[in-house]
Design brief:
By secondary structure, the chain is an alpha/beta fold. It has five helices and four strands, in the order αααβαβαββ. Strand 2, helix 5 and strand 3 form a beta-alpha-beta unit. The longest helix is centred in the first third of the chain and has 20 residues. The radius of gyration is 15 Å and the shape is globular.
């Protein structure tokens, strides 16, 4: 039984759902919910909290001249936070462009060096050793 059509349809529906979520990401009620539950408000929709992200940043040990790839970034949590705190550059990557665009605007407004690439985590368009660190939050590639 060939299920490839079912899988493709399910993937399309999931990506569309995330696109719609990111269109409404700049919502103060959602941001307050994030602040209360995760300790930060970056348009995230996962479960990674501020303490875990601070630990990620320590483990990555990146700084001003370093680049960090955020896989499945959505709107940029935790990559934007890590880049801001470490003064590194973050590259946001995800399939739905809407989250990357929102995160990129926010990052630039906060003075973060940020770039964005729409791609799947299983087919990233970068050469080996392009980044000093890689992070993700609640992502299955």
């Amino acid at each position: 039984m060939d299920t490839s059509g079912d899988i493709a349809r399910a993937e399309t529906e999931l990506v569309d759902r995330f696109r719609q979520y990111y269109v409404g990401t700049d919502n103060e009620v959602l941001r307050e919910l994030e602040r209360r539950t995760l300790g930060a408000a970056y348009g995230g929709n996962g479960y990674t909290d501020i303490h875990q992200v601070e630990r990620f940043a320590d483990l990555l040990d990146v700084g001003e001249d370093d680049r960090v790839l955020e896989l499945g970034s959505g709107a940029g949590w935790p990559g934007l936070y890590i880049a801001r705190e470490t003064r590194s550059t973050v590259v946001l990557s995800d399939i739905p462009w809407e989250g990357i665009a929102w995160g990129s605007r926010r990052g630039r407004a906060e003075g973060v060096q940020v770039d964005g690439v729409a791609c799947s985590g299983t087919q990233i368009p970068f050469r080996d050793r392009s980044f000093e660190g890689v992070t993700h939050s609640d992502v299955m590639c």
